[in-house]
Each structure stands twice: as C-alpha cells, then as structure tokens.
Amino acid sequence: MEEKKQCVVYGQVPSKSNQYRIVTISGHGSLAKTDALENYEKAFYQQCNLRDRRISGFFELYIDVYFQSNRSDLDNSLKVVLDCLQTIRAINNDRQCTLIYARKFIDKHNPRIEFSIKEVVGVTKCDSKQPEFEFK
Fold first, then answer.
1. What pLDDT is attached to residue 3?
2. Which of 22, 32, 103, 108 is the most buried (most CB within 10 A)?
3. Which residue positions in the chain have pLDDT lower than 50?
C-alpha cells in the first residue's frame, strides 16, 4: 500500500541558483551557502514533520509553492526542497524521485510550501519507457 506523507513549511523558499557565494578558505576558492539558504534549511528542519523517515525507495513529490511575488522560479525552488528533505533524512536520496507534480501560487502575506511524498511501493528500478503524451 502506498503512503502519502504531508507537510507544510512556512517561509519563502529560496532559489537554488542564487544561494551560494564564493569564499576563500586557506587561500582556495570555495562555495558557501548564503545566510538566506541556511536560515531556510533551519526553518525547514524545525517545521517539517517528516524528519528521519528515511524513505529509501522510489517516491513521488506533490508540491504547491506559495511565493511572495511572481519573480521567483518554480523549478529553482524544487532542488532546495529536495535537498532539505535529504538533509533532514526524510528521504535517503533525491535521485529516487520518479515524479514531481509542482504548482506555483502567489501569497504575499504567507509564503510557504505544502507538499506530500508518496512512496512508490513494489518498484525496484525505474522503467525506462517514456510516457506517451498527446500534444495538440
């Protein structure tokens, strides 16, 4: 039986593409997370009720992202969410995600993400067949 795990995390999810800065460590350049990304990761850990679930198999992610404005890209926020899920050990590895169903909304007073993870039970490998779409 498949199981859906639901969660809401309040706050503006940052865009992955803008959340690293170049720093010098012992004379060598390196990437470091911005304060905004670190703060979001901490908030995610505190608010997400899926900590330590360790979903090790394949899963699907269903997510509604509520931004403060229309400036943010939906796709850049998805990587942050998947990385956060992996960091809090809700999932073992984000490469096990087989489907992402994402929607973008605007809520300038209450930015947040609302999502569920659906475990794909009984599947041991990804099917290499491409789904058939009908374009009109």
1. 54
2. 32
3. 1
Q: Provide CB contacts within 8 A for 129, sequence distance 6+.
A: none
CA distance 84 to 65: 15
Please tell me the number of Cα atoms within 13 Å of 35 on its side-chain side: 0
Q: What pLDDT, on a 0 to 100 scale, did the predictor assign at position 72?
A: 87
Q: What percent of the chain has pLDDT over 90?
A: 60
Query: Which residues make Cβ contacts (< 8 Å) with residue 77, sequence separation at least 6?
Result: 13, 14, 15, 16, 65, 67, 113
Tell me what pLDDT residue 1 has: 42
The token duo for 74 is 């939906």
87 pairs with which residues across the strands? none
